[in-house]
What we know:
Blueprint: H1 7-16, H2 20-29, H3 31-40, H4 50-59, E1 70-77, H5 82-85, H6 101-107, E2 130-133, E3 138-141, H7 145-149, E4 154-161, H8 167-176, H9 186-194, E5 204-209, E6 238-240, H10 258-279, H11 282-305, H12 312-318, H13 328-340, E7 345-351, H14 359-383, E8 390-395, E9 399-404, E10 415-418, E11 422-427, E12 435-437, E13 439-440, E14 447-449, E15 452-453, H15 454-464, E16 474-476, E17 479-481
Parallel strand pairs: 1-7, 1-8, 4-12, 4-15, 5-6, 5-7
Antiparallel strand pairs: 2-3, 4-11, 8-11, 9-10, 13-14, 16-17
Helix pairs in contact: 2-3, 10-11, 13-14
Amino acid sequence: MNLPPDWQSTFESYNAAVTRRQFFRRSGTGLGVAALSALLGQRALGANTAAATLHTAMTEPWKIAPKAKRAIYVSLIGAPSQLELFDYKPGLDGRFKEDLKDWLAGQGERLTGMTAGQKAFPVAPARFKFSQHGQSGAWISELLPNIAKMADDICIIRSMKTDAINHEPANQLVYTGSMQNGKASIGSWLAYGLGSLNQDLPAFVVLHAKHTSPFSNVQAISARLWGSGFLPGKHAGVSFRGSGDPVLYLNDAPGIPRELRRSMLDGLEQLNRRSYEAVGDPEIQTRTQQYEMAFRMQASIPELADLSQESEATFALYGEQARVRGSFASSALMARRLVERGVRFVQIFHRGWDQHGSLPRDIAAQCKDVDQPCYALVQDLKQRGMLDDTLVIWGGEFGRTVYSQGTLTETNYGRDHHPRCFSIWMAGGGIKGGTVHGETDEMSYNIVKDPVHIRDLHATILHLMGLDHEKFSYKFQGLDQKLTGVVPAQVVKGILA
């Protein structure tokens, strides 16, 4: 590439230029900090002092008293059917194959292209048995016998609702708060607002659990679901792999000793610091911080990933699949190890819940994957005294229809997407265990009591983690961006301990 003779002076002039944005950024981190320090004194830099508290209140007004220090989100991609798991509707048994075509027309419901052309919309009762569990008498399906055993530890929300009817926008809404691209994920928001509890590990880690059912309809997902969007890049989720090294390039290249690697990073940091002082681009700092994090992870990750340290009792609790790297059981155990070591937010993605056909067969296999490990995760946290300050969330992106998609028989059917109601459960971290919140109509089609929108779920998660959703924001493109957006959201107080 041929460069003009004066390229070096041109580059230096560009670096030396001060834009309006750079001026305010530098002012905010220079004179502003100096003035604040003068007002608060040296104690502003200390912990557990009145001045430090005042400093936090001035610079982070969104902070409130937390119930949880960390969270684990079990994300069931594809949307599990509430009718087969938590929303028991025995009255449907006598309405098998009843055509709902005229009834649906009166509901004003959007239909997907997968069922809009059906001549009939026959009622498909769930073919699995339900029984009541715990002090709340929660109805839970036979597909989840282990989760049923901990009915008094969890809160089942049967009245969730969303705005999206297709997977990609629905997943973006539930995991980033918006159906638009470019927004920050919930884990990134928590990492930004709360930081990490361990400087040697990321604040936000993503685990992709393999499903054991080869016939499942596996939905594709994108990194937008754990991306940082407009937040600094260091807050994006770090994906751990289910095979090989958990993180790529974990080991130094052959011939590069640890001491040389440290020296290289020190030199790079000096160059980056000079570039930042000249340009003021925060992404330069982000890169430097990520290099340092990667260096520290090279020492911390091998110990973290070594499950041989776990006891036989632990493997018996999670199941034999916990010994298989990348399985859901292994991911659940890894999630416990991560939060135990100070990771703020762990997200486990488990795909294969999109059952438009062969639902009885496929959902049974999917539940077998997650039932025991989820029970084990909650009980493991409880045994270690961590459940009270660890929030666990379990659920998908929307619900499924009461009518069958495609052919309906007594033993086989499928269900289409349904945004008006679905079920999730939560545990630990300030959640009132042994409760059932919300109610749907006799068709599990509309909510009749205590609706909970996705935005309300986000507001509640932030509240439990010590963040006020109305004040917690980030300035971007001239707007105060929030996870809960501009539409009013409210904390679901009925599920709080």
